[in-house]
Amino acid sequence: MILRLNTDIAAGTVGLVFAAVLWLPREDIGRLSIIFPRAILVLLCLIAVALIVKGVIRPGGRHVEITGSPRRLFTVIAGFFLWWGLVEVLGFLVTTLVAFYALTWYLARVETRVTWQRLLKWTPVILGLVIVFYLTFKEVLNVRLPTGLFF
């Protein structure tokens, strides 16, 4: 599918919507834990507004070609929203591990059949990524992650 659109305005609008969605449910986060996310959201808003202004002042229409399956794209987007919804219920570690395994399986099966042996072979990488994310947010950035039922 080929679209002709002003990518600056489109990216800026998506950035503002994304920042608004993340900004609104922040009242249950501690005062110190919100400092870094708030700084990132303010930076995201500034960049998004700058993109929209640039797109209005000097519009640059581009042909954007979306390759691949739109169904696969929307399935992955729905998976991320599902992860976001379940992270409060099951906890960050469990939900993220399940999400990484599901995403790896779903995207890898496009190219080839995925067996349990292949998923087990990917386990060290998936565990490593999730643990790095967890430790970065928890220990380095002091972000209070949802614990949920398990962790």
Automatic annotation (TrEMBL):
Keyword Nucleotide-binding applies: no
Domain of life: Bacteria
Signal peptide positions on this chain: none
Transmembrane segments: 6-24, 36-57, 77-107, 119-137
Keywords: Membrane, Transmembrane, Transmembrane helix
Ranges for domain DUF1468: 15-146
UniProt name for this protein: Tripartite tricarboxylate transporter TctB family protein
